C-alpha cells in the first residue's frame, strides 16, 4: 500500500512534468496562448477537410508557434534566454497571425461553398479577434518597456 506524499515533497517525474504550472494556465497570457493554439489546430483540421486545403499551412505554422511560446513561457525560457526580447517576438507573431487569419478567412468564406471552409472561416475570424487581443496587450507591455527605457536614458547621459 502506497503512502501519500508529504505536502513539501517534490512531485515524481512523469507525465505531470510535461504539464504547465497552474499559475501560468490561470494567467491571461497562458489562457490567450492556449486559446490561440486550440483555435489554430481547429482551423488547421477544418482546412484539411475542406476544398480550401491550400490555406492549411498558415494555421499549422501558427499552431506550432503558439504551442512553442506556450511551453516557452510555461517553462520560463523567456527568463533564461535574455538575448531575445520575447514580448517583441510575441507581438510580431500576433500581428502577422491576425492579418493572415483575417485575409484567409475572408477568402475561405467568400470563395468556397463547402461547410468545412465556412467553419474554418468562422473560426478564423474568432482567431483574428483572439490574436488582436493578444497583440493589444503585448503592445501595451512594449510601450511600458519603451517608456521605462527612455526615462532611464537621459539620467544615464547626465551622469557621464
From TrEMBL:
Keywords: Membrane, Transmembrane, Transmembrane helix. InterPro entries: Marvel (IPR008253), MARVEL-CKLF_proteins (IPR050578). It is a multi-pass membrane protein. Its main location: membrane. Signal peptide: none annotated. Residues 24-143 form the MARVEL domain. It holds the Pfam family MARVEL. The chain crosses the membrane at residues 32-50, 56-74, 94-113, 119-139. It is found in: Membrane. GO terms for cellular component: membrane. PANTHER family: CKLF-LIKE MARVEL TRANSMEMBRANE DOMAIN-CONTAINING PROTEIN 3, MARVEL-CONTAINING POTENTIAL LIPID RAFT-ASSOCIATED PROTEIN. This is CKLF3 protein.
Amino acid at each position: 500500500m502506497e503512502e501519500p506524499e508529504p505536502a513539501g515533497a517534490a512531485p515524481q517525474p512523469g507525465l505531470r512534468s510535461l504539464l504547465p504550472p497552474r499559475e501560468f494556465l490561470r494567467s491571461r497570457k497562458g489562457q490567450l496562448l492556449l486559446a490561440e493554439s486550440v483555435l489554430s489546430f481547429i482551423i488547421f483540421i477544418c482546412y484539411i477537410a475542406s476544398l480550401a486545403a491550400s490555406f492549411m499551412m498558415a494555421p499549422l505554422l501558427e499552431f506550432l508557434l503558439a504551442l512553442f511560446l506556450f511551453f516557452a513561457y510555461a517553462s520560463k525560457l523567456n527568463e533564461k534566454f535574455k538575448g531575445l526580447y520575447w514580448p517583441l517576438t510575441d507581438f510580431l507573431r500576433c500581428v502577422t497571425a491576425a492579418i493572415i487569419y483575417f485575409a484567409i478567412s475572408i477568402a475561405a468564406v467568400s470563395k468556397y461553398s463547402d461547410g468545412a471552409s465556412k467553419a474554418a472561416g468562422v473560426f478564423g475570424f474568432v482567431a483574428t479577434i483572439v490574436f488582436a487581443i493578444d497583440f493589444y496587450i503585448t503592445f501595451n507591455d512594449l510601450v511600458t518597456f519603451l517608456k521605462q527605457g527612455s526615462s532611464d536614458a537621459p539620467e544615464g547621459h547626465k551622469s557621464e
